[in-house]
Model the fold of this input.
Amino acid sequence: MGRSSKDKRDIYYRLAKEEGWRARGAFKLLQLAEEFQLFQGVHRAVDLCAAPGSWSQVLSRKLKGPDAANTIVAVDLQAMAPLPGVIQIQGDITKVSTAQEIIRHFEGQPADLVVCDGAPDVTGLHDIDEYIQAQLLLAALNITTHVLKQGGTFVAKIFRGRDVTLLYSQLRIFFPDVTCAKPRSSRNSSIEAFVVCRGFVPPAGYVPNMANPLLDHRYDEEVEFKDVEKIYWPVH
Done:
């Protein structure tokens, strides 16, 4: 599908072309990283639903540098053009074999950071789009519980809507610090935002399970009104 004239006038679209990014979405991760210091102390990073690769590009440019020991793994069902310093897995994030392959590339060590900018093809039907995005987010969260170290960080796209508090509650089971942010480069007209989840601590006795990623709990006891404000009032 071709770009509209509106896209071509967008400052971040033009900047992406000028700076060699594969998509304008690179600036979303760059701005989130600046706001939340996402790359500090990161040596092993995973980019889920990575194609076309702009977030993997950001990770490559920001993490590789002089420290060649840093490892970046990009995962997507689609193949994408190679990127310097990025290991690519063409795989399904709902399969335990994909999680195992990620860990193999990290030589048995867990990731410090997992990011996911994946989104469905938008239908324009808000309820459907929100539901599909929620399922994608939960799939990303589930594989993250397999590969992320305790204390690690998870960043993913979310569509804000009436059921977003349920997703927020699910994230809070695994992360004590969850913030919803909308970077400057995310269009005002878009319902997208990004959850920044820090301090990964799985519940006592939790065993990652691809077949059933959700834990039984009462949502109304997990989410307080002060938490909901963090969802609807993003930092940018």
